[in-house]
Amino acid sequence: MILSKMKKIILLLILTNAAVLYSAGNTANENLTKYSQRDDNYIDTESVYHEESPEYRVEEEKNVRIILETKNNDVYSAEIIYGGKTVMMRSIGNYGGKEIFTGEIPNNSTDYYFRLVDNKVKYFYGKNMVTSQNAVYKFHYEKSDSLTNVPDWSKSSVGYQIYIDSFRNGNPDNDPIFNEFGTDDFIAPTGQIRSGTQKKDLVAAQWGTGAYNTEFTVNDWNGNYETKNVWEENALNEVKNYSRYYGGDLQGIKDKLDYLKELGVEYLILSSPFYSLSNHKYDTIYFNHVDPYFGHLEQTGTNKGLDIKGKVHNKNGDKELNLLIYNSKTGKDLLDENMTDPSTWVWTDSDLELASLVKEAHKKGFKVVLEVAPDITSNRFFARMDSRYKDWYLDESDLRLDLSNKNVRDYIENSMKKWVLGPDGTFKNYSDDDGIDGIRYVYYDNKNKKYLINITESLKKYKQDLLISGEFTNKFGEDITAGVYDSGADYNIINDLTKYMINTNSNYKIGSVEFATKLNEIYNKYSSERFNATQIFADSLDTDRIYSGVINPNRVFDRNNQSNQGYLNIRPDLYDGNAVNKFKEIISVQMMLPASPVIYYGDEKGMWGADSPRNRKPMLWEDYMPYENETDDINKYKTRLRTLPENVQINEVNKTISYPVTINTEIENHYRNLLKIRKDYKELFKNGKFKVLEVYNDPKTKGRIDAEISRYLSEEKRKAKTYQGKDINPQTPNVDFITYEISNKKDSIIVVVNNSGDSYPLSLFVPKLFGFYTNQLNTREKYSISDKKINLIVKPYEVKVLHSKDTNIFDSFK
């Protein structure tokens, strides 16, 4: 009996403790992070985010797009409430644990807030988060009056960025005779130009006479990039490759306008053409004069068929380098120009060469944009050499101009006005215009950004359709809203393309869902017309070549990309048999967006290279063939030496590998095909709407596709056994794809991106009942629509560009 009672007491204690532990466990569980699930009567209010900034409020002409972030899969519905009206928001995707909602309200100044619902739970979100609608503190939106106009010609046009010194040498007479080191680092040049003038007489200078001084020479256009000229052997390691010249000039660009036209280019972006002793010209000596190395060292005395209303100094035989010498005592150069008085400025022969190029480009249908570093100067800049201008700089020890100084702004503005209006000083029509069509601000200091607004506003008055673009920061929406520029270069897209298509390490790679969501997010953070004008670069003169990036994965974009950081410089297709297909995949997406894709010179030829200076190697031209083999450090390839192709030569003595330099015609033809599609459907890319259709890793899509591929493989196995008597075991392919659509009321283009090295069948949903889609990259491929689906097979890393008429469901048959 006593034992029985003891058992009951012990049992009671156990149950009591269990109850206490259960209760404590429940309390602890309540403090744990709750997994998101729609309709579960729970909203993670800490994850809800919106701010009163252009990053979350995107102005269209008639509407403003409102962006809201929540925890992923957490909210059943989100609504915008404004002026007594309600707008339901839609989810555009998720990544990193967050979900993004957008909705549009009329573009009028107004108060607004959000209503978030999940089953029976309801919150009202403004500057606070409350459960009572009457207690919410509303957000306020004020319509901007500073937005600039976006030129119609810039919308979805194809750009081509040219680094002038490396594009084409059209006039050997202007080849550089010294560089930024100055004349006293080199002995007097030998030889003469075609006029008979000795090169040493092209500038009044003190030449070097030291035992280690050598003659400055331009590097061989078709030589091995790693081979140094004699003068480079004596230069410091960190500067020698950055200070060489190749002799490219404005005449070289003019000579290749027909090539660029045939390629499908619509506007040119020229690297800084202004006078400077560096090869890149972004550290300017004069903003109001073109560098003689790009134009003429010796003036020709001709007006180049231009109508010149202003002053001109192009006297035959005068030496331009002498004319541009600034005298701090007189406050003038030898052209008798006062830098603060534009009425004294003149047009030199080199200035006229730029205007002549612009006019010729206009005749062929191009627009021309100049890159300008509006606040960076050389230490030879006139204001740097004259104490009267000491207040022109942000800091005495810096070479940054202070644009808050009105005199500085006036000089920059008047210099740009010279190039915008051209020698005739006016704008009538594009076919006869000799002034540039756009300016691209680069490298400017953020302290000067708000003062660029004044310059932009003034320049827009001289030419209504002038494009002002910029290098986007993390706050590009604020820059656009403030009126700094119309639109600009967004590197977020190529950054995400790299993460999705190139990187393999989980620390650097993103999946298809995150990529598609980020693409959607970027698109929605612009107004439609500004996304149409956004310049999409795959690479540029400040990044490694994207073709080389394909074989140098698992990096942050534009980081760890120098040759001395282990970066592989070898021609990519010699290292990776899939390099060309991967590269084509990347540029296909770059070109098939309703934006303004920009080709960095030579990408279409299959050029490769690490970050600067190897991304600025001389352009590959057929008439310059053959090019010497290029070399790289053998130590980078130790694990691959036995598997490299036979045309890669291994030199154990010099510790180098050597490989041929060639033009890749497959890549060039792919560019031509993509640009032809953009030309054929110009209005679609200009006015079409972007929409993600399917993403493989979305659970619903993945389940359906996996089941269909499984049935396909089973059928292949059955047919092999039935008709061939063979037992096969087909491998399940690695599936990874996205599809997206660009559409208007007339046409529809669906882009199918296979981001896998395998080939496999796909049954894809399309937004039409029936009809046909035709692959514009291979028009023999036609896919019939059945029950809003098409069936196709994708090849490794293939991108299909499928077009269908969209006026009505029958137009696909035409």
TrEMBL record:
Signal in keyword set: yes
CDD domains: E_set_CDase_PDE_N
One Pfam assignment: Alpha-amylase
SMART domains (UniProt xref): Aamy
Glycosyl hydrolase family 13 catalytic domain boundaries: 161-642
Keyword Nucleotide-binding among record annotations: no
Native source organism of the sequence: Pseudoleptotrichia goodfellowii
Name assigned to this protein: Alpha amylase
Keyword set, alphabetical order: Signal
Signal peptide residue numbers: 1-28
GO molecular function: hydrolase activity, hydrolyzing O-glycosyl compounds
Gene Ontology biological process terms in this record: carbohydrate metabolic process
Lineage: Bacteria, Fusobacteriati, Fusobacteriota, Fusobacteriia, Fusobacteriales
InterPro entries: GH, GH13_cat_dom, Glyco_hydro_13_lg-like_dom, Ig-like_fold, Ig_E-set
